[in-house]
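Re: that backbone. Tokens:
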């Protein structure tokens, strides 16, 4: 009993230790002065209102959201295709597909950023939504790949065989049976890809231009030039949306199981 209490206490202490910087940033976003203070002497919502009324912040949030949605959608397509290649296609070398799918996780971020930038410059895709979304889809695809591959590996192949015996074609079996059963995992991977794009800074800084910014790039620029509580407010909003998306990803498996039972 004491051992369990000790483990719980240690876990709680570690959780508070890792959450403390985030809590500090969130609290300072409610400070009334133009200088970041912790704890703030007085509280206000002015800085949160400012980031939604200021044109630069609104554009940055809009760019980040659109890039994250497009990159997540592309990552869902690419990651699912790669997972199907590993789990269902036997004439392709499995190790090569796995290596290709997981390469963005293994290669250092700065190397990926420089590579994406050189390619983007050559094809004219820097400084815009599409180029950054394509780059972010590459780092988001492994999240989808791992989730979908795990689901396909645990899926009963007799269900697919039963569909074929009943007269379904290979394409119909793939769409109506395999992908339908794997869809919750596809969505979970897409949510994780969205979060990875939403707060990504390094690649976004290479694709930055005078007319195109994402929120992490603007936040970093504000910190370098002298941050005020609006920077904390923007960081708090980024964190809150990431937490909400993580909660969505955590709740999807249970929702899918209840739907399957009903």
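Recovered sequence:
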């Amino acid at each position: 009993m004491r051992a369990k209490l000790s483990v719980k206490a240690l876990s709680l202490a570690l959780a508070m230790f890792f959450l403390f910087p985030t809590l500090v940033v969130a609290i300072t976003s409610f400070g009334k002065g133009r200088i970041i203070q912790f704890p703030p002497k007085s509280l206000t919502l002015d800085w949160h209102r400012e980031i939604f009324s200021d044109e630069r912040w609104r554009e940055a949030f809009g760019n980040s959201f659109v890039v994250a949605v497009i990159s997540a959608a592309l990552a869902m397509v690419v990651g699912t295709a790669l997972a199907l290649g590993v789990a269902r296609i036997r004439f392709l070398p499995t190790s090569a597909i796995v290596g290709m799918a997981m390469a963005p996780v293994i290669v250092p971020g700065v190397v990926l950023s420089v590579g994406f930038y050189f390619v983007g410059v050559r094809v004219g895709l820097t400084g815009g939504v599409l180029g950054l979304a394509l780059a972010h889809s590459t780092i988001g695809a492994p999240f989808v790949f791992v989730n979908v591959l795990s689901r396909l590996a645990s899926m009963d192949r007799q269900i697919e065989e039963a569909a074929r015996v009943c007269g379904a074609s290979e394409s119909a079996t793939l769409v109506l049976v395999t992908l339908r059963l794997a869809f919750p995992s596809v969505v979970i991977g897409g949510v994780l890809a969205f979060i990875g794009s939403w707060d990504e800074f390094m690649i976004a800084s290479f694709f930055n231009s005078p007319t195109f910014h994402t929120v992490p790039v603007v936040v970093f620029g504000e910190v370098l030039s002298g941050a005020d509580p609006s920077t904390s407010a923007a960081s708090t909003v980024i964190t809150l949306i990431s937490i909400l998306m993580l909660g969505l990803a955590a709740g999807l498996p249970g929702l899918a199981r209840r739907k399957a039972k009903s």
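The radius of gyration is 22 Å. The mean pLDDT is 80.
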